[in-house]
Design goal:
Blueprint: H1 3-6, H2 9-65, H3 68-81
Helix pairs in contact: 2-3
Length: 88
Amino acid sequence: MSQYQRLSLFWRLFLPIALVVLCTGSLRTWMFLNEERVAQTQAMQNTLAVAAATLHPIVTKSVNIGDYSSIQEQLDREVQLRPYLSRA
């Protein structure tokens, strides 16, 4: 007799059901975290696109006249407004 057959009916039903519940819970958690990662990546890309569109004219103008300190000041202001831009 195998060890599985020696178990009571309760344990023979409980173990596979518990395994299925754990697997589906783990899969759902993984899927949820993946969805959150995608959403955060998309939000960061949108924010960076807005920041780039805002900064492009300022940086272009300052580079043309050679005023690099104003570029640094503007970048510092943007990072103060949106701290997560410092990661980018």
